[in-house]
Amino acid sequence: MLSAAHAANQPADTIYRNGYVYTVDARDSVQQALAVRGGRIVYVGDNDGAQAYAGKKTEVIDLRGRMLMPGLIDGHMHPQSGGSRLLNCSLDYASLTVAQFQSRIQACLDRDKKSGPERWMVVVNWFQQGMLPDGVETTAATLDALKTERPIIVRSSFGHSALLNSKGIRTAKIERDTPNPAGGVITRDAQGNATGLLEDAAQDLAMNLLPPLTVAENLAASKAALAAMRQQGVTSFLDAYTDPETMTAFTDLQKQGKLTARAHFAVLIDLDKGATPRSAVAELLKQQKQFDQGPTRVAPSLQVRHAKLFMDGVISAPAFTGAMIEPYLVNKGTADQPDWQPGPHNGPPSYFSPDTLRATLTELARARIDPHIHVDGDRAVRESLDAIADLRATPEGKRVRPALAHDEIVDPADYPRFAQLDVTPVLSFQWGKPAPDTVGALKDYMGPRRYALVEPQALLLNAGARIAYGSDWPVDPLDEWFALKVGVTRTAAPNAGKEYAGRLTDQPGMPRAEVLRAITINAAYTLRQEKDTGSLEVGKLADMIVLDRNFFTIPAEDIANIKVLQTVVGGKIVYESEGMR
Ligand SMILES: [Zn+2]
């Protein structure tokens, strides 16, 4: 701690007074004032104490009772696809009738007058399960009704299906005798003709024809992503599946002084193409050498310290690619009189066998790279915990900070293992609400016992797990405050419709303080940044946000409406709304 006399010799750059300064320190203490010098916090306490830091050039900001808290740390997102989708034709995850679906896409076609008849129109953020009325069919014909010569691809927000128009089907050379690719389905009608709907790996038949983003498009996508983050108060993030083009774009912005969040990148470990655990980690280290800019410092920079591994896909219908311990249920009755019974399969074999996962984790630990593992079903979770348990028994295995992302369903026997093995679940709280992808696409196929356990946020918390938050943007829109609201309430938005009213299952929500720790100090831990960020304490970086209302005193449903008035990164204001002053 600096003495008051010393402080007076070196005045602060900025003093915040009269606030509800929510620190997220070890006791979640609330203070009144905070002072910043050289990008770091030099004082947290009452107004009187802050006075000692005031100098002639000190800017004094009167918070007028507003809440100041640490900046949000998003522990799992995909900023480049998120940013580029902001630039695409977007259906905004909305529930649409066929007529609305058509008119929105027609409007995009009409706006884009430059593109010729061979240029793909890419439409994104299609909420396929939310089409109205329930169960309405969308096929190539739906798109063929539009006035255009161009091939069209409409991508579902979940990423598991895409719809083409007839020109798109021809351009992708999909014919009657085109076989389904491994891991994918070309949906066909009764005559065996492609309907236009492509599931999972079949999407590649069209996706591989889309030109990769140009350097300029990559740069625009990163810029758009950072702008969206600033506005919501995100001051650090993990890109949970990166590529050199993305890191190049963020490096360019960093050099121009336009990087407004601390950027962390996870490189994919993919053993499909003949790579070994050792060669895959060597490739990761090569990218680290090229893009990592060293330890956290005042100005935001790039860090490459994480590996991304996929253990499975997703547990929801129609994909069922989540690796489950017990089988998915199938309806052996009729639609009117359903009879849900265990079906023939429990999802694919995990994408890493137990042996390759162990070998890969060992290589990562030797290289001091933290594994960030996609696990959706309870079998994927268990096998990952088993491999981490073995890793923890080795000398090098103690130094990594493994994270298991998603964890949509976890067997209760595994809850305590997160704390025991020091594994952080990285959860997307917004999934814990009644919605087409939970009530509609999980309930029947899981059966009542397992359905009661889906999205086990508070269940893991109560078992002692350190819960971190990750938005997984753009699987959902980037809406951090809505997600935090759902973390507390487990309810959908008020306008979601009657069938989605009420809480998702009987599970409790998380306490508000724990929801905030998940998106601040706990996410900082997964980024090895908790000594510098994640709380407002003397010595830490001034990464913080001012809110337009108090997270703790407003009704829980109102948390979704919180607006960030000011975002500060390393003491520098990177975003301010009109309401701030
Ligand atoms: Zn993800």
Please supply descriptive tags for the structure shown above.
alpha/beta; 8-stranded parallel β-sheet; 6-stranded mixed β-sheet; 29% helix; binds zinc ion
**What is the SS-derived class?**
alpha/beta
> What number is the mean pLDDT?
94
Number of E-type strands: 26
The neighbouring-strand order within the major sheet is 8-15-16-17-20-21-22-23
- Low-pLDDT regions: 1-5
Q: Termini distance?
A: 31 Å
List the ligand species: zinc ion
Helix content: 25-40%
Task: Report the C-alpha radius of gyration, rounded.
Answer: 25 Å
- Envelope shape: globular
The number of helical elements comes to 20
Task: Please give the largest β-sheet.
Answer: 8 strands, parallel
Share of β-strand residues? 15-25%
Give me the secondary-structure topology.
Elements: H1 4-9, E1 14-17, E2 20-22, E3 30-31, E4 33-37, E5 40-45, H2 47-50, E6 59-62, E7 67-70, E8 72-77, H3 79-87, E9 89-90, H4 98-111, E10 121-126, H5 140-144, E11 152-156, E12 161-164, H6 166-171, E13 184-188, E14 194-200, H7 204-207, H8 215-232, E15 234-239, H9 244-255, E16 262-268, H10 277-291, E17 302-310, E18 329-331, E19 340-342, H11 354-366, E20 370-375, H12 378-392, E21 403-406, H13 415-420, E22 424-427, H14 436-440, H15 443-446, H16 448-451, H17 457-462, E23 468-469, H18 480-489, H19 512-518, H20 521-526, E24 544-547, E25 564-569, E26 572-576
Parallel strand pairs: 1-6, 2-7, 8-15, 9-10, 10-11, 15-16, 16-17, 17-20, 20-21, 21-22, 22-23
Antiparallel strand pairs: 1-4, 2-3, 4-5, 7-24, 11-12, 12-14, 13-14, 18-19, 24-25, 25-26
Residues 76, 78, 240, 472 line the site of zinc ion.
